[in-house]
């Protein structure tokens, strides 16, 4: 990491519990009136635990390490102090927020724009998968806040004329543990070298790993630690279950659960992009409104999927772990771990999609004969034995025929899709992505191929 400055180990924010009872409003935390109104309009009636701990300290100008899980309101915990400071000393290129994924970047930008709309805050999202040129133009306008993934930001720092962060006042690293797990260490290092040492830094992370501690020593000055999650904890209002099933019946049990709990919104986690796509096709063939979200989809498709789900136009979102952290999807009632997570910590993040902000929710984990050890690790990590989700096996078995037929269709569609991708690549360069409609094949065959023959 960048050369450490004279850093002490973080002091704990020891705030008396009584204060939490009394401090009910953002105004009490020291947030300025304009921003308090913006919070009201967003429906933020009272600050969350992490906000109560972090905001007053941030307003005093301290560096902060926030240990908080997703859904705890940490975006507000760093956005409000930054906007508060921006109002006092308006300046372009004022703050930089680094995030591990594109989706999270867009989400943070939405919150900045919503909170800062009345004061004319401009933000730019600088992430991969989107045209560099338009981003360079956005940077040339010198926005107040940049929200970026490390790789693409470095790209612009090196190649976009006239763009630098020498005047930066605030640096935020959100989900720092994930930024480092995704091997962005060298990029973060480079960024730390080209921004002023005289700045405020907020580091937020769900877990305190060795890498995060190393980053903290390199990037923060005498930070205060605000921890609101105990070591590995799942929310109290979350009902967690498991189902032990032979792996060949996973699809059938999934359909049974979706029928049993119909009327809820679901987030179903699969381990691979391919399985996400296959399961989405399978469920669509059975008449469920399911949409996939995974790393092989183009950026616009991912955001499209996410927005349909957010707008409740679809009730089932299938996702890989790429999508599992940091996404603020407000209304997931049930999380299904269709494929058990290989890292027990991912379980915490997956089930963190439901029972957010005080609402209750269910999480159901499928455990096959191959997953027993992984499941035991999860139980050990969260420190509780999970109960079995009650199922009527005879009713499940009645579904096998319909499911088998849908599986066959899904396989055919995937195969057709694979061939179509090959053809369209040969034909038009690879501009395809994985949620294209089946039947594009005909367009390819009827369109560009014929033109070529006619030349």
Automatic annotation (TrEMBL):
Keyword Cell inner membrane carried by entry: no
UniProt key word ATP-binding: yes
Catalytic activity: ATP + H2O = ADP + phosphate + H(+)
Transmembrane segments: none
Stretch list, region Disordered: 1-23, 414-455
One cellular component (GO) term of this entry: nucleolus
The EC number(s) this enzyme carries: 3.6.4.13
Domain of life from the UniProt record: Eukaryota
Motif stretch (Q motif): 24-52
Keywords assigned: ATP-binding, Helicase, Hydrolase, Nucleotide-binding, Nucleus, RNA-binding
Entry's Gene Ontology BP terms: extrinsic apoptotic signaling pathway via death domain receptors; RNA splicing; rRNA processing
First-level EC class: hydrolase
Residue ranges of domain Helicase C-terminal in the record: 237-397
Chain ranges of the Helicase ATP-binding domain: 55-226
UniProt domain DEAD-box RNA helicase Q: residue ranges: 24-52
Gene Ontology MF terms: ATP binding; hydrolase activity; RNA binding; RNA helicase activity
Assembly with partners or alone: Interacts with AGO1 and AGO2. Interacts with GABARAP. Interacts with NOL8; the interaction is RNA-dependent.
Protein name according to UniProt: Probable ATP-dependent RNA helicase DDX47
UniProt source species: Nomascus leucogenys
Gene name, Swiss-Prot/TrEMBL: DDX47
């Amino acid at each position: 990491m960048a050369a450490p400055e004279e850093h002490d180990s973080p002091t704990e924010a020891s705030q008396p519990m009584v204060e939490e009872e009394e401090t009910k409003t953002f105004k009490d935390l020291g947030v300025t009136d304009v921003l308090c109104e913006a919070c009201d309009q967003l429906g933020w009636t009272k600050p969350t635990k992490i906000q109560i701990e972090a905001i007053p300290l941030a307003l005093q100008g301290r560096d902060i390490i926030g240990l908080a899980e997703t859904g705890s309101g940490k975006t507000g915990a760093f956005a409000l102090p930054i906007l508060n400071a921006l109002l006092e000393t308006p300046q372009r290129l004022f703050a930089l927020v680094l995030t591990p994924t594109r989706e999270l970047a867009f989400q943070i930008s939405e919150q900045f724009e919503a909170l800062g709309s009345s004061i004319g805050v401009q933000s730019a999202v600088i992430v991969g998968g989107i045209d560099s040129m338009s981003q360079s133009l956005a940077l040339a306008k010198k926005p107040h806040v940049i929200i970026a993934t490390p790789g693409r930001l470095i790209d612009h720092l090196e190649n976009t004329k006239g763009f630098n962060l020498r005047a930066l006042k605030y640096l935020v690293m959100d989900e720092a543990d994930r930024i480092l797990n995704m091997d962005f260490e060298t990029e973060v290092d480079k960024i730390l070298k080209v921004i002023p040492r005289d700045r405020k830094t907020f580091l937020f992370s769900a877990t305190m790993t060795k890498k995060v501690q190393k980053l903290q020593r390199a990037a923060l000055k005498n930070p205060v630690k605000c921890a609101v999650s105990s070591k590995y904890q799942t929310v109290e209002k979350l009902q967690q279950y498991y189902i032990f099933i032979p792996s060949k019946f996973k699809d059938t049990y999934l359909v049974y659960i979706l029928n049993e709990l119909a009327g809820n919104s679901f987030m179903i986690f699969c381990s691979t992009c391919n399985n996400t796509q296959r399961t989405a096709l399978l469920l669509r063939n059975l008449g469920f409104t399911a949409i996939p979200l995974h790393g092989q989809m183009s950026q616009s498709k991912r955001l499209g999927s996410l927005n349909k789900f957010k707008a409740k136009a679809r009730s089932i979102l299938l996702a890989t772990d790429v999508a599992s952290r940091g996404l603020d999807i407000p209304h997931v009632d049930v999380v299904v771990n269709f494929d058990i997570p290989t890292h027990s910590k991912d379980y915490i993040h997956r089930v963190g999609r439901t029972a957010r902000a005080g609402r209750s929710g269910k999480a159901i984990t499928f455990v096959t004969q191959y997953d027993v050890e992984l499941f035991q690790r999860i139980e050990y990590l969260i420190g509780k034995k999970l109960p079995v989700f009650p199922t009527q096996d005879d009713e499940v078995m009645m579904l096998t025929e319909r499911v088998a037929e849908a599986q066959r269709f899904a396989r055919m569609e995937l195969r057709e899709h694979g061939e179509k991708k090959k053809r369209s690549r040969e034909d038009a360069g690879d501009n395809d992505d994985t949620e294209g409609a089946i039947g594009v094949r005909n367009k390819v065959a009827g369109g560009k191929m014929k033109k070529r023959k006619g030349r």
